Amino acid sequence: MTRRISRLGLAWLACLSGTVTAHEVVLDMTMTPAAVLQLRYADGQPFAFEAYELYPGTADMPAQVGRTDAQGRLAFLPDGQADWRLKAFAADGHGLDRRLHIAPTGATAAASTAEAGLDHFARVILGLALILGGFGLYQRYRSKQRKSAP
After folding, report:
1. Going by C-beta distance under 8 Å and a sequence separation of 6 or more, which residues neighbour residue 105?
2. Of 21, 72, 91, 150, which alpha carbon lies 20 to 30 A from 35's?
3. SS3 of 2, please?
4. What DSSP string describes 110-142?
C-alpha cells in the first residue's frame, strides 16, 4: 500500500514540476540609449503618477502604456521610429496630446506650446476673455427676458 502511495505521489510531483517554471520571471538588462520625457504642470509641479499612451507614427494601437514616475518622467526605446504621439492624461482632466520627433541621436524635438501657436500668457488671456464673454452674453439674454416679462 505504501509503495502504491509513493508511486502515486511521485507521479503527482512529476506532473507539478512542469508548472513550477511557468511562474518564474526572468529579467534581462540591456544598456541602450532611451528617450526620457518629463511632463509637468504649468506651475512646474511634476505630472506624477499619471497615465500615458505612446503611439508609433500614425498607429491606432499604443506601443507603450503606463504611468509617469514621481518626477513626471517616462522612458521608452524609439527602435528607429522617428515620429511618435504621446497622450498623457490625469483623472481631473489635465493632459496633453502631442506629436514628437525623435532624432537619430535620441534627443527629442517636440513642438513646444509656444511653437504650436499660443504661449502660456496668451492662453490665460484667451481663457479669461472666453469666460467674460460668456458671462456678458448670459447677462444680455437675462436683461432681454426681464424686459419682455410683464
Report:
1. none
2. 91
3. helix
4. PPPTTTTT--HHHHHHHHHHHHHHHHHHHHHHH
Cell readout for 87 is 497622450
| Helices (H), ranges, 31-71 | none
Instruction: Express each pLDDT in 21-63 by its tens digit.
Output: 556 777 788 887 888 999 999 889 999 999 999 999 989 999 9
Bridge-based pairing of strands 51-56 and 64-67 is antiparallel
How far apart CA 114 and CA 111 sit, in angstroms, is 8
39: how many CB neighbours lie within 10 A of its CB?
21
Who has greater pLDDT, 79 or 23? Answer: 79
Amino acid identity at 124:
V
Query: What type of residue sits at position 116?
Result: A
Using left for φ > 0, alpha for ψ between -120 and 50, and beta otherwise, residue 44 falls in: left
DSSP at 44: S
Taking the whole predicted model, whether its pTM rises above 0.85 is answered as no
Enumerate the domain spans of the chain: 2-111, 118-150
Was domain 2-111 assigned CATH 1.25.40.10? no
Cell of 71: 518626477
Distance of alpha carbon 21 from alpha carbon 100, whole angstroms: 41
